[in-house]
Every structure is written in structure tokens, then in C-alpha cells.
Specification:
The relative contact order is 0.16. The model has no long low-confidence stretch (mean pLDDT 93). It contains 5 helices and no strands. Helix content is 80%, strand content 0%.
């Protein structure tokens, strides 16, 4: 059963990475249009895609926590706890899924996603969003490499 579960997880990681590439392209295109036109509705679209970007990563992390670790954090702060779980090696089970550098970038994404869920989009700070858009490309480059390394680990198990 473990081989089948790992195979399903590997397929899921690859599918989510494909989807995240599309979301990243939409973030970059929307931000370029927002900057060019000063149209707040493009900023709204970018905010929605930034939300989707982190949500996609969190789906991957949730699958890893359930399938490999056998434990998904609970409680009010489970989102932050899940990210922390991915930063740590689980001795005898798996290496850390992501690096500290990537974790810091993704924590910024996580906090922004929380903000989007709790604030009206017209209250967004475009300067802060611009910095987040730029860091999203770095975050994706890092996370893609780290998740593919994790897939290699799973394939060897």
C-alpha cells in the first residue's frame, strides 16, 4: 500500500507544480498589466492568484503530512504549524521538505493569503504586493527544486 500511496503523492506533486506554473504566469502577467494601466482590478486578480499560489503549495504539504508523516497539524494555527512541519526532518521517515530560506518566503505568502481572506481588496498595499510578486518567482524556483528533490527521495523509498 505504501508504494501506491507514494506513487499517488508523486503524481499529485507533479500536477500541483504544473498548476502552480500556470498560476505564477497569471500573477506575473496580471501584475505587469496592473503596473501598466494602474487598474485596481488587475491588482485584485493578482491578489486572488497569490492566494491560489500558496493554497496549491499547502495542498502539497497537506498530502505530504498525511501520507508520509501520518500527522496533519490541528488547531487554529495549523497553517503555520504545517509550514513548520515541512521545514523539519522527521528522523527515520523523511528529510526536511523545504529549506529555511524557502520557508521564510512561503511564510510571507501564507500571511498574505490570510490577509486576503480577511480584508477588502481595495485596502491592499500595492507596494507590498509588488514585493510579494517578485518574491513569488524566487519562492517557486526554490520550492520546485526542493519538491522535485523530495520526489526523488520518495522514489527511492
Amino acid at each position: 500500500m505504501r508504494d501506491e500511496e507514494f506513487s499517488d503523492l508523486i503524481r499529485r506533486i507533479h500536477q500541483e507544480l504544473d498548476d502552480l506554473r500556470r498560476v505564477l504566469a497569471r500573477i506575473n502577467d496580471g501584475w505587469e498589466r496592473a503596473c501598466r494601466s494602474n487598474d485596481d482590478y488587475y491588482v485584485d486578480g493578482v491578489a486572488l492568484n497569490l492566494h491560489g499560489f500558496y493554497s496549491g503549495l499547502e495542498r502539497i504539504f497537506t498530502c505530504i503530512a498525511e501520507t508520509v508523516d501520518g500527522h496533519l497539524p490541528q488547531g487554529e494555527t495549523w497553517h503555520a504549524l504545517l509550514l513548520g512541519q515541512m521545514l523539519r526532518e522527521v528522523p527515520g521517515i523523511r528529510p526536511a521538505v523545504i529549506s529555511t530560506e524557502t520557508g521564510l518566503l512561503l511564510d510571507e505568502q501564507r500571511r498574505f493569503r490570510h490577509l486576503i481572506r480577511n480584508v477588502y481588496t481595495y485596502k491592499l498595499d500595492p507596494e507590498r504586493m509588488g514585493k510579494l510578486v517578485l518574491s513569488t518567482q524566487t519562492a517557486f524556483t526554490n520550492i520546485e527544486a526542493e519538491l522535485l528533490a523530495f520526489v526523488t527521495f520518495l522514489e527511492q523509498e
